[in-house]
Amino acid sequence: MRITIVTPTYNEAENLPKLVSALFSLPLDLRILIVDDNSPDGTGRIADELTVTYPGRVDVLHRPGKLGLRSAYLNGFQKVLESDAQAIVQMDADFSHDPSALVEMKNLLELNDVVLGSRYVKGGAVDERWPVWRKSLSAFGNYYARTILGLPLYDVTTGYRMWRRGTLQQIPFERIQSNGYVFLVEMAYLAHCLEFKIGESPIYFADRRWGKSKMSFKIQLEAAFRIWQVWWHYRDLRKAGIAGRL
Ligand SMILES: Nc1nc2c(ncn2[C@@H]2O[C@H](COP(=O)(O)OP(=O)(O)O)[C@@H](O)[C@H]2O)c(=O)[nH]1
Ligand SMILES: [Mg+2]
Hints:
Spore Coat Polysaccharide Biosynthesis Protein SpsA, Chain A, two-stranded parallel sheet, 9 helices, 9 strands, about 15% strand, globular, binds magnesium ion
């Protein structure tokens, strides 16, 4: 199965070369698309160098500035869908997402339309160094979103996902409104409303190796409100209750 990883980068100069080499050491048929937002630390230049080191296997999408995760993924998906990729992966570039988990995710994708790398299924976990407040916030955020939206999933905010090409092609991107974590919830919700089969593969979510996380209480609070916006935005899909009526 030809798999393309889409990884958005903003100041990941330390992580990116290590990530790319870790990915290419896996027993998988992989390509990588880096979506860089003109990172001040020069990640974009490093990404260009990687295209020379791994000709034909690494591609870069340069954007003029920090435009956010949603549009980074949407631009990336558009580009990948022009290629012959059979599966598309969403993955952070900071080593929070362990590359080796891809092998199991790929196996599970044989039985599903999309596979989520899940911290909250049996065998999954978050970094044990996380303070209690961050663990609780993440667990509660998930519980909150899946309860309001009625999502039969354990980890709805995970950013580590593998999509079948055909699944991603049917997601109506033009309807997606939210950014950040809620963008991830919104995509999962769309997949659920469209009645795709969603699998969850256990992952260990490590804290980023280099650089700083921007997770904060304020971000979570805003996200909590935006979940309701998602709920309202797709009321037509809930009413229709069946796939394909977009
Ligand atoms: N291209 C792009 N990448 C971003 C942007 N914001 C975050 N990222 C990348 O998205 C991934 C997840 O972001 P991160 O800062 O690790 O989020 P956190 O772990 O939740 O604090 C990382 O690979 C970041 O480099 C952005 O605005 N544009
Ligand atoms: Mg991170």
